[in-house]
Amino acid sequence: MSRLNQHLLTFAKVLASQAIVFAGFLLFYKLGGRLPLGVPMLLLLQGALAAIIGRLFGLWSFWMPIQLILPLATVYNEVVPGWAYAAAFVASALVFWNGTAEQVPFYMSNRRTFAALSGLLAETKATRAVDLGSGVSGVVTFLARKHPLSLIDGVETAPLLVAISKARVFIGRLANARILYRSLWDVDLGGYDLVYCFLSPVPMPRLYEKAKAEMRPGTLLVSNSFAVPGVAPERVISVDDARQTRLYLYRM
């Protein structure tokens, strides 16, 4: 299934789950049933039930709060202009574009993690590195500044994040940094000495197989927080930050 079709299917599931609950309410009232709830509470109940159905349909948990408030926002749209909801929806879609299709949330690495990765680049003498799912390019721009002789790539599919990242690279005049607008599955990892990712548990087994097939012997796959199931890392780096980040290192 193409990426566009995956997104369309996701949005169809959102609408379908709301429609199922709404139809259920209509049938319930038509049969003489009544709920001792005011309109706002009924709308919240509609959203809550739709969120549960959406999860049963396989929607990522990111959609649950959206499902919850969608009926309320639709009915009580006099307070907030309609364009604001549309703008918020479009902005969310542009940021979480990859999350809906690949079940990869928008995680951001912190500066202490940047420093740990910088140390790994120096330790391994890596001349090419890539951040798979680079977000707003924090890792890319930091490493590009710290290692001007290394080429640092960022791979991202969320359009708004790509635009922000390209602007940061341009403004920072980072000639050794690139932002690639493509899926991580379409990137050939064979040219990189170090591959970094901060994804989710879902894609890790597939990503590890891709790395083994494409990366050269001796190169390094670094996963933030999510280990590869059933594969022992060569080393685990504990980052001294608030969330106690762990970097799992896999030698190819």
Automatic annotation (TrEMBL):
The keyword Transmembrane helix applies. It comes from the Bacteria. GO terms for biological process: methylation. The chain crosses the membrane at residues 6-29, 41-63, 83-101. InterPro entries: FAM173A/B (IPR026170), SAM-dependent_MTases_sf (IPR029063). One of its GO terms (molecular function) is protein-lysine N-methyltransferase activity. Keywords: Membrane, Methyltransferase, S-adenosyl-L-methionine, Transferase, Transmembrane, Transmembrane helix. This is Putative O-methyltransferase YrrM. The lineage of its organism: Bacteria, Pseudomonadati, Pseudomonadota, Alphaproteobacteria, Hyphomicrobiales.
